[in-house]
Amino acid sequence: MGRNLKLEITESAEELKILLEKQTSVYSKERLQALYLLKSGTITTLQELSAVLVRDTSTIYRWFQKYKKDGLSGLLKQYKNPGKKPAIPPEVMKQLARQLQECDGFNSYGEIQMWLKEECGIEVGYHVVYRAVHNKLQATLKGEKGHKKIKK
Asked: pLDDT digit string (tens) for 106-129?
């Protein structure tokens, strides 16, 4: 059996239980459950807690380090991956939308590729241009059947 955990939990067991019942995300629930089990005295060692939560001891230890450093709000704050940056930046997409709305517009996606390279300094593939125009801007080119302007 491992050593007893010594973690200063500022919230009461009742407060933690109420917070635990209100949680909707698994992410927050398991962290609150770890604190609640320790505060209520149900579990006293990291190994027991690891077995109950089915998490590695190093993961739980990392949670507790976060709790010590940033408190309950820091422990429950979820990291959101910003994701991949778009190949065509939003400001360039606005310029492209304006160009597509003009009467002369573009005849082909290849022409748009060249315009992006020459005017905006952006080199992107054909399919990137197609998805940007067709899916994101929901526009068609001059030569396409059923030519229409950008939807607003």
From this structure: 888 999 999 999 999 999 999 999
Per-residue pLDDT reduced to its tens digit, 89-109: 999 999 999 888 876 778 889
pLDDT tens track for 21-55: 999 999 999 999 999 999 999 998 999 999 999 99
Alpha-carbon gap, residue 40 to 50, rounded angstroms: 16
- Dihedral sign from CA coordinates of 85, 91, 94, 98: negative
Q: Are 35 and 16 in contact (CB under 8 A)?
A: yes
Q: What whole-number distance in Å separates Cα of residue 111 and Cα of residue 73?
A: 51
User: Residue 82, Cβ neighbours under 10 Å: how many?
Assistant: 6
Sequence letter at residue 3:
R
3-state secondary structure labels for all residues of 20-66? HHHCCCHHHHHHHHHHHHHHCCCCCEHHHHHHHHCCCHHHHHHHHHH
